[in-house]
Amino acid sequence: MSKQYQFKLVLLGESAVGKSSLVLRFVKDQFDDYRESTIGAAFLTQTVTLDDQSTVKFEIWDTAGQERYKSLAPMYYRNANCAVVVYDITQTASLEKARTWIRELQRQADPSIVIALCGNKTDLEARRQVSQEEAKKYAEEEGLMWAETSAKSGEGVQEIFTAIAKKLPLTAPPSARPGAASRGPGARTGVDLSKQQGAQGQQEPCNC
Ligand code: GTP
Ligand code: MG
Question: 0.85 exceeded by the pTM?
């Protein structure tokens, strides 16, 4: 029987870098040119099949990047197993904001959290302001995973989530191992994994 691992993943980053678009691409394989800015946070799930032996179910908290929601973030990254910190490769300031989030995670999140730095909007290569070298060097110095993506074209999106899924079962605390209860914001109760629907993404209303 295959094992299903369950992990809580939080997306952080400046407003408009494409956090919600990355999740929409990952969960539904869709892209929307005119997305509304997220209010509070959104919750979605998606399952990644690693091999015959194991699947990883992500409980995804897509946070709002607007400054007015900043104080909510600890509620979402607290107890998170992994964080995807997103910047926009066409906006240098968004990498600075990503660095701020990473410093906060390093100070305040669970010490075992897996952090991935993600440069989004690679389809806008002509407008690039953040070089791959600069971002990669920073990620290496801080011990982070790093990748570039385009939520618009889909490039790199599945890959970054799969890379995180592969890394997690190896590093996860016992609470994230198969059959363990889910630990989400507001102490959400455990999820019965036997009732989940396999590899299909599901969108659920925000309960925050
Ligand atoms: P907040 O919810 O305000 O924090 O923003 P967000 O980070 O969730 O950004 P969102 O996904 O809403 O995307 C912002 C804008 O960027 C939207 O108009 C998207 O269509 C656009 N966008 C997102 N990803 C990409 C991408 O990979 N390429 C291009 N060209 N545009 C993108
Ligand atoms: Mg959003």
Answer: yes
